[in-house]
């Protein structure tokens, strides 16, 4: 093969690869709500925590890519403190596969307190909720290396963010 032919073929290959890549990305729409399995597990989490005398609130589940971008701007281009390290399309929230929780006190206050033990069983209420979450199949943001996201629970169904960005989706029926 001549060198020119080789270069031409290489360019063609890269171009084709790029086109296919773009097509793969655009074929599948972004989810618009929380995944039904995650929704079911979220409700079970609330129930099971309540059975242990711990009331929780879900502060966030599905979040659109636009909402994620707004959140990302906080503490960067917008006022406030940094609350997330990922932009739109990079969070499991954007695919309806993550939830955030907080503790709900008797007086109605919502707290992010990892130490309190209001049901007085010698265990941190927060960690009890995390344990239930893990039993239900969630992965906990507090286990991450680097940036730790303590209120965050996610279910990835074996899919990476990259795969989700490419349009892969969890099974609809389990
Ligand atoms: Zn989260």
From TrEMBL:
This entry's Enzyme Commission designation comes to 3.4.-.-
- Keyword line: Hydrolase, Membrane, Transmembrane, Transmembrane helix
Question: Membrane-spanning regions, if any?
Answer: 6-21
Domain Peptidase M15C, chain residue ranges per copy: 89-155
Q: The organism sits in which domain of life?
A: Bacteria
Tell me any Pfam family this protein matches: Peptidase_M15_4
* UniProt cross-references to InterPro entries, sorted A to Z: DD-CPase-like, Peptidase_M15C, Zn_M74/Hedgehog-like
User: Does the keyword Secreted feature in the UniProt annotation?
Assistant: no
PANTHER family in the record, alphabetically?
D-ALANYL-D-ALANINE CARBOXYPEPTIDASE, PEPTIDOGLYCAN L-ALANYL-D-GLUTAMATE ENDOPEPTIDASE CWLK
Q: What is this protein called?
A: Peptidoglycan L-alanyl-D-glutamate endopeptidase CwlK
Organism equals Fictibacillus barbaricus
